[in-house]
Write a structure and sequence with these properties.
The complex is a heterodimer. By secondary structure, chain A is an all-alpha fold. Chain A is built from twelve helices and no strands. Chain A is about 75% helix and about 0% strand. Classes of the chains: A mainly alpha, B mainly alpha.
Chain lengths: ~325, ~325
């Protein structure tokens, strides 16, 4: 078991370094030049070729690509993530400020996804091939297919302009404020279909197993059969999809947060991409990739705990 | 894609003629199942309309996508302007049609590039095995561990300016007419970004198919009875591996449309004044509360288009998956 965990971690590390390298190389070919930018910002006519060359040397930017890459990674490790182009802010600070907000939204959405998705999935499986089943699968699929920037304005138009049940939620007042309801729901809609589908499939697969038939034959109530025998086995695919959920939340928050003026990680990413703010783009890409890699590694580690039949390839 | 064959075979399947011995092939079966699935037929219809709009849209559009009707800005849908006009007086219906062309072109070409890339690389991994296989697997792992929208956005945001500069340089030095107008390079960069996001899925799919099929009894039987390798590959391996690939094609087609819109929404995909559903949503979202139709029209178009393609994909999945044949 320990050996398996160690090998999983050993796989995650090179992946991480490769992601860093790809990101760094892409930013290196971008038209972003920190030296010219800094000199231009000083506005004293300093950005002539000679000054640029001197500054480049002073900052070590004339050194080979690989050396600059290792420098950058060292910087990352001690918390020096560079400075943003638009506004000259510390990239790590921007991420540090935004991330907790998005993380709260994301966690709340993950909990909601599980709370709504699992019961719906079970219901769909129990009522297989009835209109309830079809309705659940179809509606969640529709919600999944629509990108957040489509759903958000359409929901706002329906809820605020047509039904007038709420005012426009803008800003951030904590995850339990009523302003967070719509953003959390929007983040839930994406992964919901996957949870529902996987739960439904898992339940259907398990139901046809002998031990469930035995449980039924013993006279256990449907509720007990579902709770004790089916749900437990259905946990495995649900763990799998937590990976999708993480990725969905990262991608979703990029489009969601600026619409609702939530000062989170997604707003930072969106502003970075819109403004071609390369140091920030690099920062958010790295943080997101680390998140995804970590989630996948953790999922792989949970598998053998949930299901002893999963073979451990060390 | 299968639209032209669908009608005759569909009616043929519904009217059962006892005197005609029905030969049931894999594809005939799949088609029958697809036609019986109502959602899939709806999906097929939507996809056909979408592709029709993409091909003939510019010919059908009542106005040009850049033509401004300056006296009639931000109008509600009317007889003159079916979907209304936007804030600078452009006809929304025409822009939606041109946007369909952008969406379909990006989705189709990036899917095509990634499927070819993925098939070649995946087949190489599956056949070669050994260290080539593990290197390729690692590369797909790495690409798949970056959130797809971020990877595509990163590529679009960083590579675009250098490529445009390069094209301008080439044009200045050689007068090569292709690079005189660089707006089409936006498209090329989006194709590239999306293809790089999609290919690992195909590579893994093909590799997995090859690995599992290679050991199947019927392949072994063919090999034992002396069928040449190429014929085995073409007649036995390909048709069996093709089903999952076709299903995946429809899903990456719809994902491609959404990603193109997402990139354009973020302002790093298709640049205005070119029409893309994503940049139409993005440029109108600020005024959703007083001009809601400007947001609703491109949003619903994108939603219906992706849903349609996904329904078709789900239908194909059920139809081509032999395990669901009992249903």
């Amino acid at each position: 078991m320990l050996k398996y965990f160690a090998s999983r971690m050993a796989l995650a590390l090179p992946t991480l370094i490769a992601v860093l390298f790809i990101t760094f190389s892409l930013i290196a070919v971008s038209p972003f030049d920190p030296v010219k930018m800094m000199l231009a910002a000083a506005e004293m006519g300093l950005d002539n070729a000679e000054n640029v060359a001197r500054m480049r040397e002073a900052l070590g930017l004339d050194r080979p690509f690989l050396l600059r890459f290792t420098d950058y990674v060292q910087g990352l490790l001690i918390g020096d993530w560079g400075t943003s182009i638009n506004g000259q802010r510390d990239v790590w600070r921007m991420i540090e400020n935004g991330f907790p907000v998005s993380a709260q939204l994301g966690l709340a959405a993950a909990v909601m996804t599980a709370l709504i998705g699992i019961p719906l999935g079970i219901l769909a499986a129990v009522k297989q091939n009835s209109w309830i089943d079809y309705a659940i699968v179809a509606v969640t699929l529709v919600l999944r297919t629509m990108p957040v920037y489509v759903l958000a304005p359409v929901l706002l138009i329906v809820l605020v302009l047509q039904l007038k049940v709420m005012t426009v939620p803008r800003g951030w007042e904590g995850v339990f404020s009523s302003k967070a309801i719509l953003p959390i729901l929007l983040l839930t809609f994406g992964p919901l279909a996957v949870v529902v589908r996987q739960t439904r499939q898992a339940v259907l697969d398990v139901v046809s197993n002998d031990y469930v038939r035995t449980a039924r034959a013993k006279g256990l109530s449907d509720y007990l059969v579902v709770a004790r025998h089916i749900l437990r086995n259905a946990l495995i695919p649900i763990v799998t999809i937590m990976g999708f959920v993480t990725e969905g939340l990262i991608a979703g928050s990029i489009f969601m947060e600026s619409i609702f003026a939530i000062p989170g990680f997604g707003s930072v990413s969106e502003a970075a991409f819109r403004g071609f703010d390369y140091p920030v783009i690099m920062g958010v890409t790295i943080v997101s990739s680390v998140l995804v890699i970590l989630t996948n590694t953790i999922i792989d580690m949970i598998y053998p705990v949930l299901d002893p039949r999963v073979r451990l390839e060390g | 894609m299968t639209q032209t064959n669908a009608e005759p075979a569909g009616t043929g399947g519904a009217v059962t003629l006892p005197e005609v011995r029905r030969q049931r092939s894999l594809w005939g079966d799949a088609l029958r199942k697809l036609v019986r699935n109502r959602l899939a037929v709806l999906g097929l219809a939507i996809t056909s309309v979408l592709i029709f709009g993409a091909i003939f849209g510019p010919a059908l559009a009542p106005y040009s996508y850049t033509q401004q009707h300056l006296l009639r800005t931000a109008e509600l849908p009317s007889g003159d302007f079916w979907f209304g006009t936007d804030e600078i007086g452009r006809d929304m219906f025409s822009r939606i049609l041109y946007g369909a062309r952008t969406a379909v072109m990006v989705a189709a070409i990036s899917t095509l590039i990634s499927v070819v890339l993925g098939m070649v690389i995946g087949a190489a991994a599956g056949y070669a095995g050994g260290w080539i296989d593990s290197v390729i697997l690692r590369i797909t792992d790495i690409t798949m561990s970056m959130p797809s929208i971020l990877l595509a956005a990163l590529i679009a945001a960083t590579v675009k300016q250098p490529v445009i500069n390069w094209a301008k340089n080439v044009h200045e030095q050689t007068g090569f007419p292709l690079f005189a107008d660089v707006t089409w390079l936006d498209l090329v960069i989006v194709f590239g970004g999306l293809s790089l996001v999609f290919w690992p899925v195909y590579a893994r799919l093909i590799r997995g198919q090859i690995l599992s099929l290679r050991e199947k009894e019927f392949i072994e039987a063919a090999r034992a009875s002396g069928v040449p390798a190429l014929q085995i590959a073409m007649r036995h391996l390909m048709p069996n591996a093709l089903g999952p690939v076709i299903v995946q094609l429809t899903f990456s087609f719809s994902a491609g449309m959404v990603l193109e819109s997402s990139l354009s929404y973020l302002g790093i995909g298709i640049q205005p004044p070119q029409a893309s559903w994503g940049n139409m949503i993005s440029s109108n979202i600020g005024s959703w509360s007083y001009r809601p139709w400007l947001v609703v029209v491109p949003s619903l178009t994108l939603a219906i288009a992706t849903l349609g393609v996904n329904f078709l994909g789900d239908g194909l999945n059920d139809a081509l998956n032999p395990r669901s044949s009992t249903k």
